[in-house]
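Entry — protein

Goal — fold tokens:
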Amino acid sequence: MADFFQAVANAKDLTHEDQKKAGTPVSGSIGTEHRDFLKTLTKLLESGEIDPHQPKSLLNMEVYETLDESWTDKTDLILANVSHQLQLIAEFITSAETPAESPQLQTMVEQLWQSKQTIEEHYDVFKF
């Protein structure tokens, strides 16, 4: 363990180029389920049916309006996270600087699933 601490203490700073390279997403295939979900998201985003900058557009309002106050509050809290995660995904998939598929993108999709699943275990409140 002392070797690790010594290595960290004596580590040299990365050059600016090395830092840019370290932050670049790597290419890599993603699972079929993730790919299919991204196709659905892309279709909804391109059609304008959902807009990550308009969080309420992500909701199935017919379901949302039937929720009691407790579930409305819970949904509103989760909605901020889901909207932000969707913004990150949308930026990633539309960027010319990121690969079409990557482990980072798959992780972002999984984070989105986990966030929305906390509500959708009880109510199908999101459009996707």
Remarks:
- Residues 60-128 form one domain.
- Residues 37 and 116 are 13 Å apart (CA to CA).
- Helices lie at 2-9, 16-22, 32-47, 61-64, 69-94, 103-120.
